[in-house]
């Protein structure tokens, strides 16, 4: 509820799960983050006073804030779901925010008249399986006295918790229906379970499972055929293979069986022929081989490679890269004979050696000092393959001293060979940036207010933090007085954690020994190398961190499994960087790189990227910095995580009587595995024992633990120089965030000529190089209110102690009324929301407090549309009002002659009081209320509190304080200000549409045309709707008459704002209905009819006011529809050269047969068919988002050239008060320059070339769909008469 996610990625459509499933919010939120964001349930640690900061699944799935058009929601949408230290959006790091929708332990069951029977039967199956699991284990389990079944149909879900086994433990009985007691039911259940076991044994597992089993033997049985021969693959150590889908009833973890899955598995299955299975299999093979490479297990790697090569299935997906990995292991060992043998096999196969193959061979010969004859033979092969020796050093990536070894080998036969000179830097060819990259106009890069020595010290601090992987900080939550009970609880916890650490370590080592034991049947043998990548202590540390972070409500098993696997991957990548020698080279180059930034060094006319590339070229030897690594497939992460979770559940125990000595002293598990039912979904949960929860609550610990990648950087970020290198020193960061299994974006970026990405990389570096500091007086006031029961009006969430108390239940549970249950449900829901908001605020304030005396930086990356985001997910300038109020630029600038005026105008903008007034009127109003402004600054909590009644109260207070300091200084113009002043676009999406279509009336409505007063498009639409209403009322339309006096700017604003981003009439109706509900006087019985009527009129008004806009939107939508129907995804290139592809594909489910339970993993990737509806609906908003990001990047680069400090929150631009006028000029110039390009025409030509071009030699007639697509793409909408240059004189374009 990492990362998510920053506004990351478009949401896919969730499966319907009946009326009792918790609703998922779908309201479109526009571009800006709302003031109140609902964060995820829990997070990285625990707050003071026994408050839990762990993830709380609660009684209902968290609401997913997503936009109905398939585009991302607000920046906090991901934080809402994953407030953890993981980065969001990358394929391997953290938990993608879609996990709650994507992963479940069961698919939906048959829906028919038997649904009630199915639910009861399934529940009994789960209980039976759980009882069997517990009886088969020697581990004592939690005892739960009763399981309620009677209310299953009415409750949101029922949990099935099996009692702990005693000597003779009966299956749990159910009250009410008496189902569990019925002999008939028991016999029927036994018969069904037996038949299901037989069916399961006849199944062919999915290809993704096969890929994950890797070396496991799969029994394939057809209904009418004898068993096929088993396929054998090598184990990491030599072991016998295990049956993949073993259903042994004696297994300590029998699988829950689901009705629908059983029905699906009845049918004989064939191996699916789509490429998604091949992609997963290829990724798995490469990941396995890279593990062997890291562990230097050459024999195992070669055996595995050759068995894959001889396999009919795996041989098809094997590529030259797989051979290169194994040859690299032999090369590091200097074993030329073994490498030569593999090279011969590669040549004899249908594959052919590539440039990297020859580089590895020459490295090996250089390492073992091979004779010239052998070296010459390989150099001749290289030439005959069409390669040149120089290309080895120009195109290949090297680890450690590989480059030196290759050079030694070549000089053995060519003593005078010289390395090719570094290629001359290529200049970005974009017409929008020709002047920017011209050496004639280049200026010195601005300096930071740090010396070389200071920057070196900051770099070391950042490096130490990243090497530790996690950061533990003090919570800002006021600690309760340290009672004897708390002291005792902390001592107990310390002792227990030490014992747990040893127990987990022992369990891990036993598990590894079991896997490594020859002739041992285990389907987990494939995981053995993945459990050897890190020291055992690191695996234990990861598992202990997850245990410490778990909230009393528990967490989805799938979420925890994915998180554990991802944490292992992240640490493995860091170890690879350390092993390859990359860290030493980064340190060496960074020490020289800071010469560009330090105030006591010579000015240099380079961009950060250019200077870093120059230093890398000068360094010559050593490892390559942009080494590529294979992302582990999702199913592998899940399986590794499930195994670690199983170890954790089995190993960690607590004495049952630790808090109550009267109880029996036997140990009970700290964690237990239960199932919850969300309507027709069965979801596995891991919950902590109440004894453990109480102990943690009593201890009232006051620390929070975050991943180092979740913290702001303590030194300037490493500049982005390629799609695979930049941002943090060691933590792996993707240039482009993308959804779970989507790797196509990364491939697209890597295939794109690097020179085409220069502008995008430079813009990201510019945003990341902005230094920040904390506004300490504002932070202290916020913390004081936070610790004093909060204040909902000021967006400071109150603690759970302020949550509404549920009503007292009647003594007889059978007499609970429907209204009573609903009231209890609402209380629990409110408590969960309050907890989420409280934890979100706690993380932000605690991180801010941790860096209160430091200068820090936010490295940036982008989503697939090019929109930029800070990498640290919790605390950054994209946050809410509270977060923005405590951030200041670290660099100070004098206010200058107009700076104080801009501060005052900015304050009035923050209040929201004078939106329709001219700037001069806003300034005059600020001067009129100067007394209130100064009173707010001097006595924020005891004075008149004027600042509290504003739209953005905390930013307004911070601005009041800045104005007070400046106005009281001897010379306000000379006052050094660190305060950011904002300039906000006026309905920016519609501005881009109006400019694209040269729409004169639309341009005037969104302030592209100069005007004495700001034009308000929302009021204009409301006025137009009111005119339509009057006409309809006169004609006697009842709903139009009812709406008299209720149509306002507020009612239509959200819908108008989100129309440009593809909101549908359905979504728009919900938005308007919500606004009407807020009006007490509006008759409730007309809500549906009125909202339906209004959304229609709003769309008609926009169509009339923005005719060109609707034409363009329709053209984009229809084009995307036809492209998707042809089986292709929609792609385009931004005016800055960034390639974009929409990542919406049909998803498929893969069943993972894990230890505790089976998991249904839903994935979508580029090897599957595109989702036509999402491709169509999302194209217009995504295209506009790519344009607004292009405009922002152009503005950032040209502000840099003029020496400005610049950051952005999408279409809200920030700079010092001194430079607001300059930024406004640059912003307008770049908007005019961008839209002076033939954007739609270029898009049409690109798509015609990509989707409709056919070879000239082709004699086949053009298909009908292709003709239709060509006609559609060629019919670019006509443009109007608007003169774009008028934007230059429009005061309220950005204001």
What key attributes describe this structure?
1295 residues, alpha+beta, 4-stranded antiparallel sheet, 3-stranded antiparallel sheet, 44 helices, 25 strands, disordered N terminus, DNA-dir_Rpol_C_phage-type, TPR-like_helical_dom_sf
Strand order of the largest sheet: 2-7-8-4
Radius of gyration: 32 Å
Shape: globular
Helix content: 40-55%
Count the DSSP helices. Answer: 44
| Number of E-state strands | 25
Low-confidence segments, ≥5 residues, pLDDT <50? Answer: 1-126, 132-186, 199-273, 520-524
Overall pLDDT metric: 78
- Structural class call reads alpha+beta
- Taking the alpha carbons of the first and last residues, their distance comes to 34 Å
Oligomeric state:
single chain
Beta content comes to 5-15%
Your description of this structure?
This protein is of the alpha+beta class and 1295 residues long. The protein has 44 helices and 25 strands. The protein has a 4-stranded antiparallel β-sheet. Strands 1-23-22 form a 3-stranded antiparallel β-sheet. It has a 3-stranded antiparallel β-sheet with strand order 13-12-16. A hairpin with a 2-residue loop joins strand 10 (718-722) and strand 11. Helix 5 (207-213) packs parallel to helix 7 (275-295), helix 10 packs parallel to helix 12 (355-367) and helix 18 (536-549) runs antiparallel to helix 19 (557-579). The chain is globular, with a radius of gyration of 32 Å. The protein starts with 75 loop residues before the first helix and ends in a 21-residue tail after the last helix. Mean pLDDT is 78; it is low at 1-126, 132-186, 199-273 and 520-524. Residues 1-53, 161-180, 218-275, 795-817 are annotated as: Disordered. This is DNA-directed RNA polymerase. InterPro entries: DNA-dir_Rpol_C_phage-type (IPR046950), DNA-dir_Rpol_phage-type (IPR002092), DNA/RNA_pol_sf (IPR043502), RNA_POL_N_sf (IPR037159), RPOL_N (IPR029262), TPR-like_helical_dom_sf (IPR011990).
């Amino acid at each position: 509820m990492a990362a998510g996610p920053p506004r990351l990625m478009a949401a896919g459509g969730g499966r319907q799960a009946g009326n009792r499933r918790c609703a998922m919010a779908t309201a479109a939120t526009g571009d800006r983050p709302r003031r109140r964001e609902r964060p995820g349930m829990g997070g990285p640690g625990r707050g003071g006073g026994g408050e839990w900061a762990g993830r709380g699944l609660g009684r209902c799935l968290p609401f997913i804030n997503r936009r109905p058009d398939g585009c991302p929601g607000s920046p906090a949408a991901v934080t809402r779901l994953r407030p953890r230290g993981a980065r969001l959006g990358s394929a391997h790091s953290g938990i993608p925010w879609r996990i709650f929708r994507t992963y479940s332990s069961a698919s939906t069951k048959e829906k028919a008249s038997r649904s009630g029977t199915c639910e009861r039967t399934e529940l009994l199956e789960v209980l039976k399986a759980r009882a069997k699991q517990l009886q088969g284990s020697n581990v004592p389990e939690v005892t739960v006295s009763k399981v309620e079944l009677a209310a299953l149909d009415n409750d949101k879900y029922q949990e099935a918790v099996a009692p702990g086994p005693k000597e003779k433990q009966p299956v749990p009985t159910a009250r009410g229906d008496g189902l569990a007691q019925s002999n008939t039911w028991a016999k029927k259940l036994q018969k069904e379970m037996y038949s299901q076991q037989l069916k399961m044994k006849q199944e062919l597992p999915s290809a993704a499972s096969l890929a994950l089993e890797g070396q496991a033997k799969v029994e394939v049985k057809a209904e009418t055929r004898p068993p096929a021969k088993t396929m054998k693959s090598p184990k990491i150590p030599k072991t016998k293979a295990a049956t993949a889908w073993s259903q042994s009833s004696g297994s300590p973890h029998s699988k829950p069986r689901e009705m629908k899955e059983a029905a699906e598995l009845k049918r004989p299955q064939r191996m699916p022929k789509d490429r998604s299975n091949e992609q997963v299999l290829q990724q798995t093979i490469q990941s396995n081989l890279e593990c062997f490479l890291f562990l230097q297990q050459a024999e195992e790697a070669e055996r595995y490679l050759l068995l894959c090569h001889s396999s009919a299935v795996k041989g098809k997906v094997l590529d030259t890269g797989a051979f290169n990995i194994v040859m690299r292991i032999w090369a590091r060992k200097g074993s030329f004979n073994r490498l030569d043998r593999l090279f011969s096999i590669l040549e004899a196969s249908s594959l052919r050696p590539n440039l990297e193959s020859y580089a590895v061979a020459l490295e090996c010969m250089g390492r073992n000092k091979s004779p010239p004859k052998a070296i010459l033979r390989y150099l001749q092969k290289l030439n005959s393959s069409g390669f040149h020796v120089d290309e080895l050093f120009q195109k290949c990536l090297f680890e450690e001293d590989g480059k030196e070894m290759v050079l030694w080998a070549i000089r053995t036969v060519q003593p005078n060979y010289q390395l090719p000179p570094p290629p001359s830097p290529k200049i970005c060819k974009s017409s929008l940036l020709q002047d920017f990259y011209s050496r004639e106009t280049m200026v010195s890069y601005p300096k930071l207010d740090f010396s070389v020595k200071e920057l070196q010290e900051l770099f070391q601090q950042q490096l130490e933090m990243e090497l530790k992987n996690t950061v533990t900080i003090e919570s800002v939550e006021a600690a309760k007085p340290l009672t004897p009970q708390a002291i005792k609880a902390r001592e107990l916890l310390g002792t227990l954690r030490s014992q747990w650490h040893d127990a987990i370590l022992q369990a891990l080592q036993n598990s590894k020994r079991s896997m490594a034991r020859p002739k041992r049947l285990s389907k987990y043998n494939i995981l053995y190398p993945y459990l050897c990548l890190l020291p055992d202590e690191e695996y234990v540390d990861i598992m202990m961190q997850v245990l410490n972070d778990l909230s009393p409500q528990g967490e989805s098993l799938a979420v925890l499994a994915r998180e554990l696997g991802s944490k292992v991957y992240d640490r493995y990548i860091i170890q690879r960087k350390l092993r390859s020698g990359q860290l030493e080279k980064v340190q060496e180059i960074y020490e020289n790189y800071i010469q560009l930034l330090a105030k006591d060094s010579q000015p240099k006319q380079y961009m950060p990227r250019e200077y870093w590339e120059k230093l890398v070229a000068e360094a010559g030897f050593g490892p390559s910095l942009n080494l590529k690594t294979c992302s582990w497939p999702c199913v592998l992460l899940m399986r590794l995580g499930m195994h670690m979770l199983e170890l954790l559940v089995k190993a960690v125990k607590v004495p049952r009587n630790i808090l109550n000595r009267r109880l029996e002293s036997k140990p009970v598990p700290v964690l237990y595995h239960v199932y919850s039912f969300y309507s027709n979904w069965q979801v596995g949960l891991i919950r902590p024992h109440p004894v453990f929860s109480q102990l943690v609550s009593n201890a009232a610990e006051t620390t929070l633990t975050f991943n180092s990648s979740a913290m702001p950087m303590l030194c300037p970020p490493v500049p982005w120089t390629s799609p695979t290198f930049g941002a943090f020193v060691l933590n792996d960061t993707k240039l482009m965030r993308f959804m779970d299994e989507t790797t196509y974006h990364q491939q697209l970026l890597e295939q794109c000529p690097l020179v085409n990405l220069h502008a995008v990389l430079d813009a990201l570096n510019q945003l990341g190089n902005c230094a920040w500091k904390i506004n300490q007086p504002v932070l202290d006031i916020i913390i004081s209110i936070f610790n004093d029961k909060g204040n909902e009006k000021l967006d400071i969430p109150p603690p759970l102690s302020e949550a509404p108390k549920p009503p007292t239940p009647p003594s007889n549970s059978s007499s609970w009324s429907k209204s009573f249950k609903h009231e209890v449900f609402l209380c629990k829901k409110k408590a969960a929301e309050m907890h989420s908001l409280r934890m979100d605020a706690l993380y932000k304030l605690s991180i801010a407090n941790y860096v209160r005396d430091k200068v820090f930086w936010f490295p940036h990356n982008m989503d697939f549309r090019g929109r930029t985001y800070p990498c640290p997910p919790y605390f950054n300038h994209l946050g809410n009002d509270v977060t923005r109020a405590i951030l200041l630029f670290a660099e100070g600038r004098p206010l200058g002659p107009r700076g104080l005026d801009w501060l005052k105008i900015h304050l009035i903008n923050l209040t929201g009081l004078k939106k329709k007034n001219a700037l001069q009127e806003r300034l005059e109003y600020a001067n009129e209320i100067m007394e209130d402004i100064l009173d707010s600054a001097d006595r924020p909590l005891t004075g008149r509190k004027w600042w509290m009644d504003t739209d953005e109260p905390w930013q307004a207070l911070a601005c009041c304080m800045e104005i007070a300091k400046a106005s009281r200084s001897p010379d306000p113009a000379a006052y050094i200000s660190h305060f950011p002043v904002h300039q906000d676009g006026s309905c920016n999406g519609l501005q881009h549409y109006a400019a694209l279509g040269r729409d004169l009336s639309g341009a005037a409505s969104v302030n592209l045309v100069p005007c004495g007063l700001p034009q308000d498009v929302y009021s204009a639409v409301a006025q137009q709707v009111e005119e339509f209403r009057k006409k309809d009322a006169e004609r006697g339309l009842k709903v139009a008459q009812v709406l008299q006096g209720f149509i306002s700017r507020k009612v239509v604003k959200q819908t108008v704002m989100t129309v440009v981003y593809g909101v549908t009439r359905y979504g728009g109706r919900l938005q308007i209905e919500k606004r009407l509900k807020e009006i007490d006087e509006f008759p409730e019985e007309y809500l549906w009819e009125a909202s339906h009527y209004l959304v229609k009129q709003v769309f008609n008004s926009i169509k009339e006011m923005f005719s060109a806009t609707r034409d363009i939107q329709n053209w984009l939508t229809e084009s995307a529809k036809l492209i998707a129907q042809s089986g292709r995804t929609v792609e385009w290139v931004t005016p800055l050269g960034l390639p974009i592809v929409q990542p919406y594909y049909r998803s498929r489910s893969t069943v993972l047969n894990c230890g505790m339970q089976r998991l249904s993993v839903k994935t979508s990737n580029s090897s599957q068919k595109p989702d036509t509806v999402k491709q169509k609906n999302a194209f217009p908003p995504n295209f506009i988002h790519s344009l607004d990001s292009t405009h922002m990047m152009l503005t950032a680069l040209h502000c840099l050239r003029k020496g400005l400090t610049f950051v952005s929150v999408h279409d809200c631009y920030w700079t010092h008060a001194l430079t607001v006028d300059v930024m406004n000029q640059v912003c307008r110039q770049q908007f005019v320059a961008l839209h002076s390009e033939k954007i739609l025409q270029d898009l049409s030509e690109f798509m015609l070339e990509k989707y409709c071009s056919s070879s000239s030699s082709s004699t086949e007639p053009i298909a009908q769909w292709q003709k239709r697509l060509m006609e559609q793409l060629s019919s670019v909408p006509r443009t109007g008469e608007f003169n774009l240059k008028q934007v230059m004189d429009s005061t309220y374009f950005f204001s």
